[in-house]
Specification:
2 domains; mainly alpha; two-stranded antiparallel ribbon; about 70% helix; about 500 residues
Length: about 500
């Protein structure tokens, strides 16, 4: 029998460049996650590296192996879909789920259990959404999907890294300057030296010189060098223990899962245009399965297909780069080698790259949104800003600060606005986009969803911990919020109908 196509190659020269690009991206995500948990929230560094990282890396290993196999099955020189840790949600879950859970409990095991259970729930949601991703993409305007990311980028990924930069300004500002020069302003360094690498190398040299000269003392929360075998094991019992706490974070977790499903649809279409026709459902099911498996084995961050398949294909990559990335990230996480990188890359050195990621997320969100919906995108960022403020006001209150009654009421209102901020931002952005487009029916549905969610604490929870609840007579605020959303939605829809002939 004569074959009308060539068999697929596992490795090619193009896989080398593609491997370094994909692997470094994943390692940076793990380093940033560990830096946020240890430096911002005070997690024990050894706990993060030996408990959370191995299971998280396992998800990348399994997902990349599955995508490599899918490419080989195509029976031609196909380029595998790239998979790795989703940057926005890896950072977002660290900031909005793991950190608050640790601050509330004071126990890293409790926070870990909540994180695992949250990831499992995200995996289940992604499995379901894999069969309905196209419908979700059609219903929610891009401004609603990208608004929460823009808010995270400019607020959380803008402020937190700059705090680290100014903790050792001689090191941090120098590295930040290189990042701004090469990555943000996009100027070429001498010899076309990679900007991110230049910032890290320069920052590391200055950091260790500063340390050696005694100008900077190590902090108590810095990671110790931890190398050793830490196999991810099934954590079913811990996941079950963490489920009640994880339910409180569903308004944050589910939108992050939804965004990766939408992103998976987009990148699969991008690969199709580049010449590799993968079935969208299969691509989504792999990322959902990898996320679910990671959560069951101790992981706390979800995996997703990466943007960039056409670039990897243009490099000449086949299946080898994803296979190698999966093995390096997976085995590196289990052997503690990634922990060694965390030790060698202090947060003040990583912070400028984290800042760049935040700026890129924000800029891309505005660039990819229709001009008429820019106001909706900006409007949807407000709940994220409220969450940022609530983090610090909550810490001040926990430290015993006693503001006057007026200020205390304002702090409570900010906290109310920040509860469930990801979902609030998404729905606010969608509502304003529907208003701009004069889609009265979709507008009413969105405000109705907001009313129902506020009634049960999915958004604007009146519970101090942000927990969900059944509405009752014990507090009138959920009913007040639900009524306000309902009334506003009906008012705006009525105005659209009343002015339709003159519009």
């Amino acid at each position: 029998m004569t074959m009308n196509h060539r068999p697929s190659h596992l490795f090619s020269l193009g896989d080398i460049n593609a491997f370094f690009a994909l692997a470094i991206d994943n390692v940076v995500n793990l380093v940033m996650m560990a830096a946020i948990l240890t430096a911002v929230f005070g997690f024990p560094a050894d706990f993060v590296l030996t408990r959370m990282v191995p299971g998280t890396a396992l998800g990348v290993l399994v997902g990349d192996l599955a995508y490599s196999w899918m490419a080989l099955r195509k029976g031609r020189n196909a380029t595998a879909m790239p998979l790795g840790l989703d940057t926005p949600s890896t950072i977002g879950i660290a900031i909005a789920v793991l950190g608050p859970a640790y601050l509330a409990s004071g126990d890293p095991y409790t926070a870990w259990e909540v994180g695992m259970a949250t990831l499992v729930l995200m995996g289940v949601a992604k499995l379901v959404l894999s069969f309905a991703g196209d419908a979700v993409l059609r219903w929610i305007p891009r401004a609603g999907l990208l608004g929460p990311l823009a808010g995270l980028g400019v607020a959380l990924l803008g402020l937190f890294p700059m705090l680290k930069v100014f903790s050792v300004p001689v090191v941090g500002l120098t590295a930040t300057g290189l990042v701004l020069f090469a990555l943000v302003a996009k100027h070429a360094l001498p010899g076309r030296f990679p900007g991110a690498l230049a910032a890290v190398v320069c920052g590391l040299i200055m950091f260790w010189v500063t340390r050696a000269l005694g100008l900077y003392a190590p902090s108590a929360g810095e990671a110790a060098l931890t190398v050793g075998l830490n196999l991810p094991l099934p954590e079913f019992e811990r996941v079950l223990r963490g489920l009640p706490g994880a339910l409180d974070y569903l308004p944050i977790a589910i939108p992050f899962g939804l965004l990766t499903v939408v992103g998976g649809i987009n990148v699969t279409e991008s690969a199709r245009v580049a010449g590799d026709d993968y079935r969208t459902r299969d691509v989504l099911l792999v990322e959902a399965g990898a996320t679910l498996l990671a959560g069951l084995f101790g992981g706390v961050a979800q995996s997703t297909p990466y943007i960039g398949h056409p670039a990897y294909k243009a490099m000449g990559a086949r299946s080898g780069y994803t296979l190698a990335t999966g093995l390096v990230v997976g085995l590196g996480g289990m052997l503690g080698l990634l922990g060694a990188l965390v030790h060698l890359l202090p947060e003040v050195v990583v912070a400028p790259i984290l800042l760049f990621v935040g700026l890129e997320i924000t800029v891309q969100a505005f660039a990819a949104t229709e001009r008429k919906h820019i106001s909706a995108l900006a409007f949807s960022m407000i709940p994220v800003l409220a969450y940022l403020v609530s983090i610090y006001t909550g810490q001040l209150m926990a430290a015993g600060a006693q503001p006057d009654p007026l200020l205390a009421a304002q702090i409570a209102t900010i906290g109310l606005l920040g509860k469930g901020f990801i979902l609030t931002a998404m729905l606010w952005g969608a509502a304003l986009a529907f208003l701009v487009d004069r889609r009265a029916g979709a507008l009413v549905v969105t405000f109705t969803v907001l009313a129902l969610f506020s009634l049960f604490g999915v958004v604007h929870s009146v519970d101090p911990s942000g927990a969900l609840y059944l509405p009752g007579a014990w507090d009138a605020r959920p009913w007040e919020l639900a009524g306000a959303y309902t009334l506003t939605g009906l008012l705006l829809a009525g105005l659209l109908f009343a002015t339709r002939k003159t519009a």
